[in-house]
Amino acid sequence: MISQQLNDRITRIAPGTPAGAVLRQYWQPAALVDELAHGPLVPVNLLGERLVLRQGAQGLELATRVASPDEAPTHYPASDAIMIDPEGPVYPTETRAGLIFAYLGAGDPPPFPAFDCFRAPDTHVFAFKGLWECNWLQALEIGIDPAHASFLHRFLEDEDPADSYGKQFRDKAGATDIPMTRLLREYPRPEIKVDETDYGLKITALRHMENGHTHVRVTNQIFPEAICIPMSREMTITQWHVPVDDRTCYWVTVFTSFDKPVNKDLMRTQRLKEHRLPDYAPLKNRRNDYHYDPAEQASLTYTGMGLDINVHDQWAVEGMGAIQDRTQEHLGRSDVAIIRYRRMLRRMMDAVEQGDLSALPMHNAGAAAIKGPLSNDAIAETADWQASSRAADHARRAACPWDATV
C-alpha cells in the first residue's frame, strides 16, 4: 500500500503536476487519422486540456479551444460550435501509423523510436481507440499484469482460430495446436521476470508445462504509458493509455501485422459494433452492467460480458473507481511489473523536477535507433526458453514483407 499523497502524485496529470510533467515530455496520441473526416476542426481532450486539431500554416496543429467552466471532460462539440482561444498554446503534431501524435511539452520533442508499429507500411497497421472512465494509471497497470489473462479473460470453450481474426487470445500458442485460451486456463500462475530496458520494461511470463516445455509470453511496458503485446503469431498490439483528465482516459491501439496486410474494414467494423461515435465510448458500460449475462458466465466466459476482452478490462479498471485507492492495496508476486513500473515513474518524476531530462527513457538522439520490441508467444524447451523465444521472433521478422529486422 502507499500513502494518499503518493497516490495523488503518480495519478494526477493536469498542467503543473509531477506525473503530468513526465507525460508532456513524450509524443501523445491525440486523435485517429479517421477523425479528420468529422470536420475541419476536430475537438481533442488531452492531459486536462481542451484542444482542437486544425490545419495551420505548418500543417496539422493542436490549438486551445474555449470551453465552458462546467463542460464535461468527454464533451466533443460539433465542428461549427468550436471557438479557438487566441491566447492559448498551440502544439505541434506528427502523423504516424494512423494516429496523430501531439507534443505538449516545452522545448524540442523527443525523436520517435523505430518501433514495429512506426516502421510498418500503412497497409500493415490499423489504429483504433476506446474511452474508459478511469484514471490512466490503472488502465496501464492491467496491461502489465501477465497473470490477469488467465482469470479475467478465461474462456471456458475454445473456438476455431480460423474464425478469430482480429481477436486477442483466440489463436494457437506458438507453433503448437494448443489454443491460447486453453493454455491460459490450464496454466494460470506464470513465473514473471521483469527487465529494465532502454524503452521501459520487458516482461516475460513463463507458464511451465509438462514434458520439459514452457510457454514464453513476452510483453513490454513502453514508457511512459504504452504497452506492446502479442495479439497472435502474426500481429502485435501497441497500446497507449492516454489521459483525458484525472478520471478518464483513452486506450489508443495500433495493430501491426508481420504477415499479410491488415483487413482494416473488418477490424473497424468489429470495433464499431462495440463503440459509438464521435467519442468512441463503449456501448457496454457501468450504466448497463456491461451487458452481464449469468448464463454466459456459467458456460462460456469468466465475466459473462461477451468475447471482447476490452470489455473485461474496462469492467476491471472502472470497477476500482475513477482513481484507484492504492492506500488499501496489497501487491503480491504476480504484481512485480507493476511495482517496477511505479518505481520507474517515481524516478522519472524526480528527474523532471530536477531538470534532468537525460534520465528519461527514449529522450535522446539514440532513441531513433531503438527497434522492436520483441513481443510474442512461443513454446520452448524449458532449459533453453530464452533462445527459443528470440528464434521465434527472428523467424517471424525474416518472413515479413516489410523491413522488420532488429
TrEMBL record:
GO molecular function, one term: oxidoreductase activity
InterPro entries in UniProt: Cholesterol_7-desaturase, LigXa_C
Domain named LigXa-like C-terminal: residues: 103-387
Family matches, as SUPFAM superfamilies: Bet v1-like
Pfam families assigned: LigXa_C
Record's keyword terms, sorted: Oxidoreductase
Coiled-coil spans in chain: none
Name of the protein in question: Ring-hydroxylating oxygenase subunit alpha
Native species: Pararhodobacter marinus
